[in-house]
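Retro notes (design track)

What went well: tokenization of the new backbones is finally stable.
What didn't: we kept losing track of which sequence belonged to which structure.
Fix going forward: every design gets posted as structure first, then sequence, in one message. First example under the new rule, 370 residues:
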């Protein structure tokens, strides 16, 4: 199908379905308050969108939603869905965002393979049920921005890069007001086949003062809201950053690791009375975590404190020649390392001396604590 397309009813086909023009979803409104998405289905083929997808002017109030199914094939988005929130390299101002239309209310995608080659903005939930690949269309850059503004983004299957270590994935569940429980869920591994270049997962409440950009949130961790859920391991080439109110880990018995081959792992979790909110485990089961870093990288933010307060053991898998004294002390205070594993040479490198009782710059309790 070519040219501008307005869909007024469900569409089902035995084979491939390809939209070469921009698509407007003109049906799929809620019925008596019940979400009733317009359905696009392929029984045995692929569904491909080579143009944009938008909803009507009152899609938020009407709860205009879309469900796409290719049970035996792939669903591919080659242009943006909803309002494009980026102009150049910057997110647009909140004042320029469409608060009533253009965005789908809910988007549900079910397929063997889901190719996200463009940005997606919805008013409510995004659910991707199938293996997701993060890519581009050749002209829209290497960062994919997925935003839910009433807010939940769920990946039910694996997430990987199309080309290993190439694309940045930025996932944001941003509430309009407090009390909406914004959520980002990774229910399977991320980067297990082809690692992303970087991953940013962020939940919170939209900032409305001081001329904010769309999806800006408060920089005060005490204001952080929502949850990020991580069920399986995540691997990136560069930074892996989690910004949320609370982090929950899945109960799987498989080893769980968060790794960056050439970047930092950062936890920016919410705080209560100045202390990081504890990391929890789904179902309350015991869980260990490994943070895998290269030399010169850091486990940043308040992650060590949040893991310790949640009773979760973790190991920092990193060449110790890149550690700083500040990191050593931070982990030691939280019982996240074993002092007997450290040699006198390590401690001399970190603190400058070992056993020099006249050097007041060194904590006496840390001198050669082996």
């Amino acid at each position: 199908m070519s040219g501008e397309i307005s869909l007024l009813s469900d569409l089902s086909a035995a084979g491939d379905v390809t939209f070469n023009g921009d698509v407007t979803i003109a049906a799929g409104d809620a019925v008596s308050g019940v979400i009733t998405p317009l359905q696009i289905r392929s029984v045995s083929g692929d569904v491909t969108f080579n143009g944009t997808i938008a909803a009507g002017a009152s899609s938020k109030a009407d709860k205009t939603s879309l469900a796409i199914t290719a049970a035996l094939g792939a669903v591919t988005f080659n242009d943006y869905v909803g309002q494009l929130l980026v102009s150049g390299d910057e997110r647009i101002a909140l004042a320029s965002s469409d608060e009533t239309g253009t965005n789908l209310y809910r988007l549900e995608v079910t397929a063997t393979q889901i190719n996200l080659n463009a940005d997606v903005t919805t008013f409510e939930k995004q659910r991707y049920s199938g293996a997701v690949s993060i890519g581009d269309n050749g002209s829209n850059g290497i960062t994919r921005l997925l935003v839910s503004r009433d807010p939940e983004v769920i990946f039910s299957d694996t997430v990987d890069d199309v080309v290993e270590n190439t694309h940045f994935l930025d996932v944001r569940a941003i509430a309009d007001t407090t009390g909406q429980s914004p959520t980002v869920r990774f229910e399977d591994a991320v980067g297990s086949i082809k690692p992303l270049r970087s991953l940013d997962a962020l939940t919170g409440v939209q900032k409305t003062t001081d001329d904010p950009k769309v999806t800006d949130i408060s920089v005060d961790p005490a204001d952080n809201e929502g949850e990020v859920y991580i069920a399986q391991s995540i691997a990136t080439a560069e930074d892996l950053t989690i910004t949320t109110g609370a982090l929950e880990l899945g109960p799987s018995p498989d080893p769980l690791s968060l790794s960056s081959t050439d970047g930092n792992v950062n936890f920016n979790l919410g705080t209560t009375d100045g202390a990081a909110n504890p990391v929890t485990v789904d179902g309350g089961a015991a869980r260990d975590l490994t943070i895998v870093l290269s030399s010169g990288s850091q486990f940043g933010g308040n992650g060590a404190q949040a893991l310790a307060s949640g009773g979760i053991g973790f190991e920092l898998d990193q060449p110790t020649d890149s550690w700083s004294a500040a990191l050593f002390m931070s982990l030691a205070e939280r019982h996240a390392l074993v002092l007997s594993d450290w040699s006198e040479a390590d401690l001399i490198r970190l603190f400058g001396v070992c056993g020099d009782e006249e050097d007041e710059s060194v904590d006496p309790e840390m001198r050669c604590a082996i």
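Added context from the reviewer: The helical segments are 59-62, 303-309, 325-333, 344-351.
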